[in-house]
Amino acid sequence: MASEALSSITLASLPAVSQGKVRDLFSLPDGPTPRLLFVTSDRISAYDVILKNGIPSKGTILTLLSAKWFEVLSSRVPGLKHHFIHLGPPSGTVTPDEEQMLRGRSMTVRRLKIFPIEAIVRGYITGSAWSEYQKTQTIHGLPQPAGLAHCQQLPRPIYTPSTKAELGDKDINISPDEAKAIVGEKYAARIEQLALACYNAGAAYAAEHGIIIADTKFEFGLDEETDEVYLVDEVLTPDSSRFWSKADYEVGREQDSFDKQVLRNWLTENGLKGKPDVEMPPAVAEKTKARYTEVFERLAGVSLEEALKNVA
Ligand code: ATP
Ligand code: MG
Predict the structure, then answer these.
(1) Nearest bound ligand to CA 48?
(2) Which of 55, 65, 92, 291 is the most exposed place for a label (fewest CB within 10 A)?
(3) For the complex shown, is ipTM > 0.85?
(4) pLDDT tens digits for 202-230?
(5) In the chain, what's the furthest Cα-to-Cα distance?
(6) Ligand 1 pocket check: which of 62, 232, 263 to mutate, most ligand atoms within 8 Å of Cβ?
């Protein structure tokens, strides 16, 4: 497996459509439906800034974990539609060298119109929700019971959307009513229903593997031809979710999460939070990679090497 991080991706064979903080999207020749090649780089962002160096294999971990989730959620959420078609590019669309570079970190997806909200679901109270609750006993403006402790499980999971900011801007927490105003009542209701169903199914699966999904962010898109709402983007990865170890969980304190915590701590301790062009030291990159790998292996039930071997 490559030990160098892959931070920038260019393909001579396919036109680039857009570049996000972590992913590069390429246009594919039209098949039965409009498609995109969704490529996940090893770039890592923290506090909304992309680090200069990446985390080797991170893009592979996020891609293979998302693929696993599309399979799990399809079987556990009745009526769920999702954008995943298959891993890798359609045959014959890229050169053999490009195919090698994309192996395990790319998927062919249905191209959809993305709703401009982030469908956040919280099962536990932490992060910005905990800060808000301490001030006003609300989460995204929704009243909550008194006496919740830090990281306590909520009486039931709640849907707490945010805006989807342009690159460089910050997402803003909004109430479900404000989300309705952005996407329209009909789609808002469907997004909320699907987000909660995907969270519940994902949380149940993760619990079987010793992992708590404290909260997560989904994105949804619309097939304008059929008017159907699809689950899109990455799904239930350590970039989009807070994962905690069930064995180490204790209510009333901060939890150690399987994500960028090592990197965030290093940035904060060194006064580099939110600064551009920061290069993380190899030890920080290694530790972060180990956290991502561990959660992948626990959830997928196979080693990363094994999972990669199974990719055609
Ligand atoms: P972050 O996830 O950190 O907020 P980001 O959203 O800017 O960053 P990436 O995750 O790097 O960007 O890029 C993925 C982009 O692809 C997102 O803008 C997402 O909305 C979009 N996307 C996901 N699935 C589809 C799809 N099926 N069709 C079209 N666009 C998609
Ligand atoms: Mg994203």
Answers:
(1) 1
(2) 92
(3) yes
(4) 999 999 999 999 999 999 999 999 999 99
(5) 59
(6) 232
Answer yes or no: is pLDDT of 312 > 90.
Answer: no
**C-alpha torsion angle, residues 129, 130, 136, 141 (rounded to 10):** 10
| Cβ pair 66, 202 in contact under 8 A | no
Measure the CA angle with vertex 92, ends 88 and 94; round to 5°. 65
Ligand number, closest to the Cα atom of 167: 1
**Closest ligand 1 atom to Cα of 48:** 3
- pLDDT, tens digit (0-9, with 9 covering 90-100), for 123-172: 999 999 999 999 999 999 999 999 999 999 999 999 999 999 876 678 89
* 53 touches 36 (CB < 8 A): no
Cβ neighbours, 10 Å, residue 56: 18
**DSSP reduced 3-state for 111:** coil
How far, in Å, from the CA of 23 to the mean position of ligand 1?
7
Kindly report the protein residue whose alpha carbon is nearest to atom 27 of ligand 1. Answer: 111
Would you say the CB of residue 299 lies under 6 angstroms from ligand 1?
no
Q: pLDDT per residue over 31-48, tens digit each?
A: 789 999 999 999 999 988
Angle at 68 between CA 289 and CA 291, to 5 degrees: 15
